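Running this now, will post back.
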Amino acid sequence: MSAATLPTTDRLSFELPGELEAREPAEARGLTRDAVRMMVAERASGRLIHSTFDRFPTFLDPGDLVVVNTSAVIPAAVRALTPDGVPVMVHLSTRLDDGTWVVELRRVVGNTSERWSGGAPRELCAGPDETIWLLHSYLGSGRLWVAALELPDPVLKWLAAHGEPIRYGYVEHPWPLASYQNVYAAEPGSAEMPSAGRPFTPEVITRLVAKGVGVTPIVLHTGVASLEADELPYPERLQVPAATAARINETRQSHGRVIAIGTTVVRALETAVDSEGRSIALDGWTDLVITPCRGVHVVDGLLTGWHEPEASHLLMLEAVGGRDLLERSYTASLSERYLWHEFGDVHLILP
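Update: finished.
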C-alpha cells in the first residue's frame, strides 16, 4: 500500500487570514468551552444560522443520536537530537500492531517546529537511555516513518514524563495536556485532539440527555494532522462497540438522526457497516477516505471544526452537506470571522 493522494483542485480552496487562526483556548480568551461560536448549516433549507455551541441541544430533536470519540490525547511530541546534535521534535502518530510507531520528524525552530526536509537520520537520541530508530518510510510517505522505540519504561508512562502535546506554529504558547482533552476522553491513544468535541461540557451533555437525545461512544485514535496539501488521511485504529452499533441501527429505524461529533467519528461509523449498510461492531483499522462520490451511509449530520484550504477533510464535509452548502458556509465563516483550528469555533451540518 502506498500513500494516497488526490488532486488539490477537487477540494475547496480559499485564503485563510492569519488573524482567524485561534492561538489559544477559549478559556484564555475569557470564554467557557461551550461559548465558542457555532455556525449551523441546514442542507434541506439551505439556511445558515450563527449561534454559539451552548445552544447545540436546541438544534437536535428527541430521538436523535450523538456519537462522540472518547479517545484521549497523549503527550505525543518528544524532543530528541540527531547524531550530529541537531535538535528535532518527534511526533508519535500511530502505534502499529507490532509495537512500532508511525512518527513524524520535525526540525525545532525557536519555540515551535517545522517539517523536516531531506534525508532522515536512522538514530535519534531522546535521553540517556532512550533511542528512537527510524526504520523505513511509512507507506511511501515523504514525512512519516516507522520507528522502533528503545525506552526504559512503557511508552505511555515514558511520554507522561517526557512528552508534551503536539503544537503547531499558530499556537504561540504551550498549554497543558488538559487543554487538549475533551471532557468525555477516556482511552489514551490520539496524537492530536479530536477537536470537534472540545466545546462539550457536562452541562451540554446533561441537556442533550434531558431532551431525549442519545449520546454514545466510539474510539478512533487520531494520527498527526499536518498532511501535505495533496495527502489523504492514513490508517487509524478504531473501536465501534456493539452497543453503539445497536443504538445507531435503532435510531435509523425510528427515523432519528445520527450526528457525528468530528470527522473521526464519521470515518469510524462509515467503516463499521455490513453489506446492507447496517452498523456493526468493529475493533481494528480503517483506511477509508470519504469523498462526495463515495458519500455517507450512516451519518446524517456532523459537528466539526473549520478546516484549512484544500484539506482532505473538506471532501468528507462535502459528502455530508453538499458542495453548494459547503461553499456558502466557508464564505460566511470568513466574512463573519469564525476562528480556525483546535481552539477555534465549530460548524454544525444538519440534513
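The chain is about 15% helix and 30% strand. More later if anyone needs it.
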